[in-house]
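Hi support team,

I've been running sequence recovery on a batch of backbones for a student project. Most finish fine, but this one hangs at about 90% for roughly twenty minutes before it completes. I'm not sure whether the input is malformed or the queue is just slow. I've pasted the structure tokens below so you can try to reproduce it. Let me know if you need the job ID as well.

Thanks,
M.K.
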């Protein structure tokens, strides 16, 4: 099991080399291809490239009328009372909800015998030729690579939220 220091190390050593060209779509499902590059421990010029997909479900707006369905599973009467109070008094209070599905079955791995910078450069060239705007290259750490990938998704949500809220406001949904 990872320690807090392990999580921190993975987070601090995650770097998006090439972000996707677009944010999460406001009114649809978005799929991102990722290529996560990590150096193998104690092995010179050996790099693992994980290639897979992350699927972002359509973001949704959660209003006070829906709090009880979302936040009260397993809670008692006090929580229900609070949800009722929010429904009555929190008319302008809304939350954005993003859902991600991470499917390990979509991941392939390859160990490459080359310096990490060369591998990253070749992946970038490959994406240039393939014209895949929804692809990203991420540099991370071998132990904790999934933490690196989750950090990317959290950062992507933060990047997308402003655009999604703006779109909902333009359409009068907020």
């Amino acid at each position: 099991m990872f320690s807090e220091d392990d999580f921190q190390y993975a987070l601090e050593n995650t770097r998006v080399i090439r972000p996707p060209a677009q944010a999460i779509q406001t009114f649809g499902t978005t799929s991102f291809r990722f290529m996560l590059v990590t150096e193998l421990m104690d092995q010179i010029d050996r790099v693992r490239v994980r290639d897979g997909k992350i699927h972002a479900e359509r973001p949704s707006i959660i209003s006070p009328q829906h709090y009880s369905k979302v936040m009260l599973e397993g809670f008692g009467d006090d929580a229900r009372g609070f949800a009722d109070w929010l429904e009555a008094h929190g008319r302008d209070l809304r939350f954005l909800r993003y859902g991600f599905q991470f499917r390990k079955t979509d991941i392939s791995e390859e160990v490459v015998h080359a310096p990490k910078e060369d591998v990253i450069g070749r992946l970038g060239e490959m994406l240039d030729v393939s014209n895949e705007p929804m692809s990203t290259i991420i540099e991370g750490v071998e132990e904790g690579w999934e933490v690196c990938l989750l950090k990317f998704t959290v950062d992507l949500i933060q990047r997308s939220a402003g655009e999604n809220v703006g779109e909902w406001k333009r359409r009068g949904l907020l």
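--
Follow-up from support: It reproduced on our side and the slowdown came from queue contention, not your input. The chain is about 40% helix and 25% strand. No action needed from you.
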